[in-house]
Structures are given as structure tokens and as C-alpha cells.
Amino acid sequence: MKEATVKSQYSMPDRGSSALRRIFSSWETLLLAVGILIFFLNTQASPYFLDPWNLSDATFNFTEKAMIAFAMAMLIIAGEIDLSVASIIALSSTAMGFAVQMGADTPTLVAVGIGVGVLCGAFNGFLVAVLGLPSIVITIGTLSLFRGLAFIVLGDKSYSGYPESFTFFGQGYVWWVITFEMVLFLLAAIVFYVLLHRTSFGRATVAIGNNPTAALFSGIRVPRVKFILFLLTGLMAGIAAVCLTSRLGSTRPSIAVGWELEIVTMVVLGGVSILGGSGSILGVFIAALVMGMVTFGLGLLNVPGIVMSIFVGLLLIGVIALPIILRRTSNRLRRAGAH
């Protein structure tokens, strides 16, 4: 009894210390520190950065992409990927534009946009989860297919004439400078956090990413989980299409070109392993804020869009390559030390 008490007295401070060490050495904490540094640099780079309305406008740089990134994070953790998300936005927006030409009202437009997104996600999910085809190849194909259909319908034209009430989804404010999109982004973050970290579905997703064969033999319905994940990605792409079309007030087939690169970068920057099996929604949430502040800060400095694309590409290569290089270097040093 006495021995147990003494052991407890010594073990409690160790647990607290190791928990603190884990928090301060985590990827999310490092990312948060980078975000604070970028925020400070932006305040020094432009006197207009701290204006509340400018900060509110800055959220448009990442909220729509981040909503898709949450679903994409779960898909990548399960060992799959969807590169067609930007093309799903284009096809959903085109369908909404066609519907508005037929006289559709706002609720119908929202249903059409989200419905087309879900159908596209189901199409990807059927090919990957049911037929067992590789997701990277399939979604590169549907990337061209969905965007191509939008170009066939619209050509070099555009759809406009959306109802006044439709503009609320992309331009509306819930309170003061808090946009409807920002509220939607926060709700999506909470929902996907609970789904990944607090439910059996989330645990099944991580198990599939670590070892799909072992997950199958342990009773997890792997094809069903993957199909639902593709559905969720299509659903979030449909919601993003509604917000983006509402914000722009028109539809062009080239809408959201290149977004898949930024969304995947957001997910990987958030600490999600590109090989699957690990990652957190909190990391993706902070990564979205960091990328939003970087692009907004560069915009305030009048940096051209092509330079931002180069930056995002280099960032993607860096966050994938750096951990691998560091791990290989560490292994070599350990082997050299052993000899």
C-alpha cells in the first residue's frame, strides 16, 4: 500500500510533463506558431491588414477550400484521394446556372448544386470502392470528365442572373463582420472533428488507412466506408460550389481551376500523412488559417496570382519531402552512431 502511494506520487508529475512535451512538440503546435508569425509579418507588411473588414474578406481565401479539405483529409487518411473536387465544383455550378435559366428559385438552386456534388462523389465512390479501381487514376479521369461536361454545356459563355436571395450564401453576413461562409466553415470543422476523432466510423477510417486487409478481417466493411468518404467529399464540393457561385454571381466552366492542388496542400500541411493512416482535423483547420493568411498577405502586397501558385506548389513539395528527408537523415545518423 505504502509502496503504491510512493509510486503514485512520483508518477503523476511525469505524466503531466510528458503530456506537455507531447503538446509542445506536436505538428499542430508548430503550425500554430507559424500562423502567429505570419499574422505578425502581415501586420508589419500592410497597415490595412488589421482592419476587421479586411480580415473578414481574408476568410474568403480559404473557407470554401477548407470545407472540402476536411472531407479530403478523411479520404487521404483512409488511403484514397479525390483529385476531381475542383471539377465537381465546375459541374455543380454549371448545373445551377442551367437551372436558373429555367427559372429555378433559391432553394432549388441549392438542392441542384449539392445534389450534383453528391452524385459526382457517388460516381467516384462506385468506381473506387465497389469496382476496386485506384482512386488517383480514376479521379484524374473524372477531373477531365466533369470539367469537360461543363465546357460542353457552356463553351466560352457564362451563366448569370441568379436571384438576390441566392447571394447570401457567398456574400451574406450573420453578424457584424462574421460571414455565413465563416460560420459554415466552423460548423464543418466541428462535424468532421467529431466524425474522425470521436466515432467508430472515424476509427474505422484510420484502421483502413493503416492496413486495409487487417481492417477487412477485423470486421470493418472497407468498401462501404470508402464509398461514404467519397460521398462526403462530393457533398462538401457541392456546398463549396453553392458558396463560390453565390459569391461570384456567375458561372464559367473555368471556375475553381487548380483548387485541387491547394486543397491537397492544405490537408498535407495540416499533418495528414499522404500515405494514409494518420492525421487530425485540428491540423487541417490551422493549416487552412495559415494558407489563408499567406495568400491574403501576398495579395495585399500585390503579388501576382501565378507567384502564389508557385508558392503553393513549392509548399506542397516541401511538406511531403521534408519529413521523408529528415527521417532518412536521422536513420543514417543512428546507423552511423551504432557502428
From TrEMBL:
Annotated protein name in UniProt: Autoinducer 2 import system permease protein LsrD
Organism, scientific name: Granulosicoccus antarcticus IMCC3135
Gene Ontology CC entries for this record: plasma membrane
Role, per record: Part of the ABC transporter complex LsrABCD involved in autoinducer 2 (AI-2) import. Probably responsible for the translocation of the substrate across the membrane.
Gene Ontology MF term list: transmembrane transporter activity
Gene name, Swiss-Prot/TrEMBL: lsrD_3
Residue stretches spanning the membrane: 61-78, 110-129, 136-154, 174-196, 227-249, 306-326
Membrane topology of the entry: Multi-pass membrane protein
Subcellular location, record wording: Cell inner membrane
